[in-house]
Amino acid sequence: MMKLVNSLTCSSFRLSILIFILSFFAFFYWTHSAGMSNEDCLACHSDPSLIKEIDSKKISVHVDDKGYQNSIHAPFACTDCHADVKSYPHDPAPKRVSCAECHTEADAAYNEGMHSRAIREEHIKAASCLDCHGNAHLILPSSDPQSKTYRANIPQSCGVCHSEKFVMESAGFSGQPFFSYTESVHGKAIGSGELRAAICTDCHKSHDIRSGADPESPIFKFNIPKTCSQCHKTIEEKFSQSIHGRAIHRGNWQSPVCTDCHGIHLIKPHIDPTSSVAAQSLARTTCVQCHEGIRLSQEFGVPGARGRTYLDSYHGLASQLGSKVAANCASCHGVHDILPSSDPKSTIHKDNLAVTCGKCHPGASENFTKGKIHIEVGISKDIGSILTRWVRNFYICLIILTIGSMLIHNALIWRKKALPYLHSPDRTILRMNLNQRIQHLTLTISFFVLVITGFALKYPESWFAWLMGSNEWVRRLGHRIAASFLMGAGIHHVGYIIFTKEGWQIFKEFFPVKKDMFDFIQNMKYYLGLSSIRPEFARFGYIEKAEYWALVWGIVVMSITGFMAWFESATTQFIPRWVIDVAIAIHFYEAILATLAIIVWHFYHAIFDPDVYPANFAFWDGKVSRKWYKEEHSLHYKQLFEGSSEAETERNNKKD
Q1: What three-state secondary structure class fits 517?
Q2: Residues 6+ apart with CB under 8 A from 424
Q3: How far apart (Å, rounded) are the C-alpha atoms in residues 454 and 482?
Q4: Phi and psi at residue 427, in whole multiples of 5°?
Q5: Helix (H) or strand (E) holding 368
Q6: Strand, helix or coil at 178?
Q7: Per-residue DSSP letters for 194-228?
């Protein structure tokens, strides 16, 4: 009996299991067969006549069967997305499909991004899934070159909105970043088919696009080095060890990151002249953003005025004149691996300066490095800067005193001679022979070339530089050729004095004597109206002597200091670099003094003096008026005609 009961019990259990399984399959078959198939949907949604009627109600319902078969959703049935559609007609209308049903992670990320927040919080139309991925029935995988999310197509996909001025302005943004990107090194690379170049989603991400002010954003300032390192890993490693990278790691907002130097969207290669990291841009626009003002000086003790002092240096001036080889900020400090001068690994550490300078100046010694590029007159405390400051102050006072005295002196003479003005055409006395005129011509030409080329170096945006074609090479070569001629003229003059009787006689007559001081005093009394007696001058009075010895002094000083600057590497084998800086300061201020002296002193006596105006043409044929010579150099005039008739003397002069 028990066996029968057990047998029936087991059979009942098996029967129950079988009935359950059959019921499940029956239910599944009934529900599936009761739903609508893709063919059922496409019977209407691909019929052109029905589509036209429904589209007239402003309802987009067209489905391209062939296109759908190529989409990433082709394996799914229509009702997998439109789950609330059970039959036809659709009453009530089906709900809008939510991509979040399947793409939960992407939806969660999108909800954290700016686009979603703009729609939810600001009620502004912003990009949604279909705006970026395309028609829901024609969504292609991102690996398909026809897909809107294919890597090469993403900039244009984003540009649909971000290139529209009114769309962006309505949301409080600018459309310029898109156009800047298309002109950048990244945009041009993508446009040429280089798929490794950075695109929008590499920096901004795909779904959770955040503001640059959001600490979670990849474009948040402190995250930018990591973002750029996705492609530029080696550079980021160098940057992280630099003074800038370390400051960023410490949370210093004022330290630059990649975009501060390279730009954000309009990133260009450093060989592009319009790039922010081009050699000619560093000291003018890029590095000076931080290193020119006093903000860093006040907050962190970092010296300011780095741009201005660099541009005042030879390197900066040569760069402004168009030099392609002049050192810039990066030449000395490095690019991404910039370190403080106190770091033994820094290129500007005192132990490494000779190597750094030697890259451009072969043979640079330790003495070559003993000077400063960034000389701040009045601030720097090194010996070179202090002496340069003293030279500057001394020459400013000397220039004011000397040129001021010359102006007063010549103004008094001009006033007296201008009323009345008499010009004598009787030019029969030989003042300068051919040898002397050649010397004068050589000095004149070389002097003016030196003035133009020299001031073009110091003031590269002036008309001096314009005369040189704003070309640094032309200025440098012209300056050195003119200097060689000037020094050659000086050497010739020394030989003229030593080896010719005429030259030695002239040299003796140029020596100052006690009478010159009395002549100066008496001359001032005469032109001030304090005396009616005018002093008598010999062949050369104090006016000519002052000019002659000023010329001798100027040639000697300019030659010595010019040679030191010209052959600085060789010079610093024996003396520190700061001596060169002092020499350059002397060279510059001596040039100003000489130029003003020529204009104020020599030009007056040779051109603007009423007695010789419009010019003393002795420089051309060597002759002057007898009347003028008798008045200006009466003592020598008497010597010329003493013991012989005036006619005989005149004939002798004409023979010369």
Answers
A1: helix
A2: 625, 626, 627, 628
A3: 10
A4: -100, 90
A5: none
A6: helix
A7: -TTS--HHHHH-SS----TTSTTSTTSGGGHHHHH
Beta strands in 95-208 (DSSP E): none
Bridge-based pairing state of the strands 427-430 and 623-625: antiparallel
Whole-number Å distance between alpha carbons of 344 and 502: 65
Query: Phi then psi for 430, rounded to 5 degrees?
Result: -80, 115
Residue in the structure block whose two tokens are 């003397």:
649
Is 596:605 a contact under the CB 8 Å cutoff?
Answer: no
User: Residue 330: CA atoms inside 13 Å, Cβ hemisphere, count?
Assistant: 15
Distance CA 472, CA 260 (A): 30
Residue 111: its H or E element: helix 104-111
Per this entry, what is the length of the chain?
A: 656
Token duo for residue 9: 């019990």
Six-digit token string for 652: 């002798």
Strand, helix or coil for residue 395: helix
Q: How far apart are CA 610 and CA 107, in angstroms?
A: 94
pLDDT at 604 over 70: yes
Other CB atoms closer than 10 Å to residue 154's CB: what's the count?
20
Residue whose structure tokens are 């890597």 = 151
DSSP 313: S
Does 8 score more than 50 pLDDT? no
Judge whether 590 and 391 are in contact, CB under 8 Å: no
- Taking the alpha carbons of 49, 51, 56, 57 in that order, is the dihedral positive or negative? positive
Tokens of 103: 């793409």
Peptide bond into 177 cis (omega under 30): no
Cβ-based neighbours of 551, under 8 Å, separated by 6 or more? 443
Omega of the bond leading into 141 within 30 degrees of 0 (cis): no
Rounded to two decimals, what is the model's pTM? 0.71
Q: Does residue 282 register a pLDDT over 70?
A: yes
**CB of 515 within 8 A of CB of 490?**
no
Which among 195, 171, 182, 51 has a CA at the least distance from the CA of 117?
171
d(CA 378, CA 535): 46
Contact 628, 612 (CB under 8 A): yes
State both tokens at 142: 């991102």
Give the pLDDT mean for 315-333.
Answer: 90
17 CB neighbour count, 10 Å cutoff: 10
d(CA 130, CA 94) in angstroms, rounded, equals 18
Contact assessment for residue 225 and residue 245, using Cβ atoms and an 8 Å cutoff: yes
**What's the N-to-C CA distance of the chain in angstroms?**
167
Backbone φ and ψ for 284, nearest 5 degrees, come out as -90, -40
Q: From residue 161, how far is each of 114, 127, 445 by CA, in Å?
A: 14, 8, 66
| Residue 48 in tokens | 């052109």
Kindly report, residue by residue over 473-499, the tens digit of the pLDDT: 888 899 999 999 999 999 999 999 999
> Considering the chain, what is the average pLDDT of its residues?
86
Name the residue among 335, 194, 202, 322 with its Cα closest to residue 270: 335
| Residue 67 pLDDT level (bands cut at 50, 70, 90) | low
Provide mean pLDDT across the span 645-652.
49
Q: What pLDDT, in 10s, does the model give residues 359-372?
A: 999 988 989 988 88
Other C-beta atoms lying within 10 Å of the C-beta of residue 2: 6
Across 423-434, b (16+ Cβ under 10 Å) vs e yields: eeeebebbbbee
Q: Is the peptide bond before 344 cis (omega within 30 degrees of 0)?
A: no
